[in-house]
Write a structure and sequence with these properties.
The chain has 174 residues and is an all-alpha fold. It is built from six helices and no strands. Helix content is 80%, strand content 0%.
Length: 174
């Protein structure tokens, strides 16, 4: 009775209706629209779910590492400035906000960019890792033209995403 993609298409329709009714900014709507279109193609979904959800694991690990690294960087910078780095109630909230925003960026922008990088780098037999790494970092650098303030964190996340993705690929024996 149900076809293979009917539940998936119904879920997409529910998400689209919720987004249309909500007061979400156009930038976020456009980004989520791109993600929805990418997930509609079965080839992209096949790449995402192959190798035990390797890309999704890479996005989660990237977000966690970026959040931890960012707060270690701010802690070290405050020590060099001579400021007293105090852990207060707002500290935990800021960790959660940075983690959620990096998760959003990695899933909405990093995952499609990594899929494109993998599709392009599959066609290159020699130096596949170099090509894939440059494409990852290139997509991270493209955020300079959209939101210049986020370009450095985006490049850091794209490099981390590439490293975690390659690590997961090696762990799977490929």
């Amino acid at each position: 009775m149900f076809k293979k993609n009917s539940i998936f298409i119904f879920s997409l329709m529910v998400v689209v209706i919720i987004l249309v009714v909500s007061h979400t900014s156009f930038d976020v709507l456009a980004l989520l629209g791109v993600v929805l279109v990418i997930f509609m193609f079965t080839a992209f979904r096949g790449i995402i779910v192959k190798d035990k959800f390797r890309k999704i694991k890479a996005a989660i690990y990237t977000s966690i590492c970026f959040t931890i690294g960012l707060f270690i960087f701010y802690f070290a910078a405050s020590l060099f400035r001579g400021d007293a780095y105090m852990v207060e109630g707002d500290y935990f909230l800021s960790v959660v906000v940075v983690l959620l925003l990096s998760l959003l960026g990695n899933f909405a922008y990093g995952l499609p960019a990594s899929l494109i990088a993998e599709i392009i780098s599959m066609k290159v037999l020699r130096n596949r890792r170099w090509v894939s790494g440059l494409i990852h970092i290139g997509f991270g650098a493209l955020t300079y033209f959209i939101y210049p303030a986020f370009s450095l964190p985006a490049v850091c996340c794209s490099a981390l995403f590439f490293l975690w993705d390659e690590r997961n690929r090696m762990d799977d024996g490929r």
